[in-house]
Amino acid sequence: xxxxxxxxxxxxxxxxxxxxxxxxxxxxxxxxxxxxxxxxxxxxxxxxxxxxxxxxxxxxxxxxxxxxxxxxxxxxxxxxxxxxxxxxxxxxxxxxxxxxxxxxxxxxxxxxxxxxxxxxxxxxxxxxxxxxxxxxxxxxxxxxxxxxxxxxxxxxxxxxxxxxxxxxxxxxxxxxxxxxxxxxxxxxxxxxxxxxxxxxxxxxxxxxxxxxxxxxxxxxxxxxxxxxxxxxxxxxxxxxxxxxxxxxxxxxxxxxxxxxxxxxxxxxxxxxxxxxxxxxxxxxxxxxxxxxxxxxxxxxxxxxxxxxxxxxxxxxxxxxxxxxxxxxxxxxxxxxxxxxxxxxxxxxxxxxxxxxxxxxxxxxxxxxxxxxxxxxxxxxxxxxxxxxxxxxxxxxxxxxxxxxxxxxxxxxxxxxxxxxxxxxxxxxxxxxxxxxxxxxxxxxxxxxxxxxxxxxxxxxxxxxxxxxxxxxxxxxxxxxxxxxxxxxxxxxxxxxxxxxxxxxxxxxxxxxxxxxxxxxxxxxxxxxxxxxxxxxxxxxxxxxxxxxxxxxxxxxxxxxxxxxxxxxxxxxxxxxxxxxxxxxxxxxxxxxxxxxxxxxxxxxxxxxxxxxxxxxxxxxxxxxxxxxxxxxxxxxxxxxxxxxxxxxxxxxxxxxxxxxxxxxxxxxxxxxxxxxxxxxxxxxxxxxxxxxxxxxxxxxxxxxxxxxxxxxxxxxxx
Length: 718
Hints:
This protein is α/β, with parallel strands linked by helices. It is built from 26 helices and 17 strands. The longest helix has 36 residues.
């Protein structure tokens, strides 16, 4: 006869929970096949968070499938009692967390260590950390009865003031669960794009425009900026010196958790810029992990004493918190190396596989011709493969690379490398759950990414902070409420760094930068690329009349076919040394097809042209055997061909990079044949009122408004 089962004696607290919920563990009947949306909705509906009647609705219309930006949340009156449901979950023994294996989202084909080893390392780290944190941090011991009575006596506004005065770190304030009326007003303002623009004086950085939310204005510096563990390795990164002035100014903006666009990147500033955002990313992850350890220590102590630690939420759906997007492996090598040094106290990195696959070995700068410009040599020095992704997992005193994406704290990848995982609509093996809990995304060298495929960048940004399709072993009792409610995109910080502003970057800034802290756009005052032209060339700028932005491309093409092309045919009868520069590849293809239909004597050089095709076209232009050459901006970015024999230069559209304008005009002097006199040299540039950013970089900030809005439509620079 089997032994009789011992009956469990229920406490008064258990009886109350059993009476209210009908079961002691509300999650006990949920199986692995349950829909994740139902589970999240159930967790939200039984929480006292987000129930102010004035809370804004951030989703329009009905939700469809898995787009889950916002979840439909009921809004009953705010409960006056503490969240007993969450306290019950925290008081129960923690279930073992199992991380789902992913066959698709692997970093660079496969992890260097197995998933089991990574989980064992995590458990050992957490076990050692709990004892250290208990000794380092004093765990608050509060009688729950007194806490309840005090909370009932306080008004909501008084609680908000007390919480805001207690927070001494912008990071803690930014990620904290906040159900105040002020937070709901800020969420509504961001959703409706209601900003107050404030011009900020930035002598070092340039022109700064702050988009303030709810009248916050310019805030004082963060009183608790850097984690103390990062001070020593930071000095080593700076060769024993303190942070540079540029690093301090950038960190001053980054550390306020504003969305930032910095459009004055250069290779002279590259080291300071990468150090600044690598430090900021490490600082964010370390502070977040320290908070998790403190909360775990509180839970362990409460469990050992049989008390209730309260609701402690400090995690997302998945582990990765920071995403750094870069164009080439050579850029990733520099950034990951800095992350490792910051994590390991300044120690040099010892990872032969990483050095082999990302390092400069075999890609010496001397291979590039010395006749190429300096910026070209620096951009393409080293490994320039643009399809990569690598996970970085942080420990207390070191870091590991090549970790599986779901076990990583920081992901460093190219847009193409991420797109190979996230896939497209309809792909069976697509996976973007590892992007669901990204709290900081840094996109560096946007100017180079524009020359690759910006569509991949837009695709990645649009898949950030979506509700995952699977739970991946997460502990719902520790997930922050703003993840559950679908407002994580408003807690994400987006940092875009480029050499210059473009409409594509501006579109991401307008539509995807939605931090509740506001955002700032920083760009320099441009002196104008025309000031660097040394060739004695008459430069004529013609403003085209366009009806609206949607028809600008058609209006430009119509002007080319009606006015410019007949002039090219007429000039080809006498002087066959014309170069037509086209910025957009779509316009390039359109003009090429038109010229083919007209059976013109021309050649086309694009980024897809072979070396022999480009060489043949350049030789024919120099010999006067061609009417003209079509030349794309991407071809110039990737090759910088020294085209000789240019007498007439036509900019169908102005280049994005102002340096290209100067280089092409100076080629007319330095690479031209000796028979060409200055009277034969000419340059014509077509632009519209929508080319404001390009015009400003080329003619200068002071003259840009005159060219864009002046009564005259043609301007000449001699």
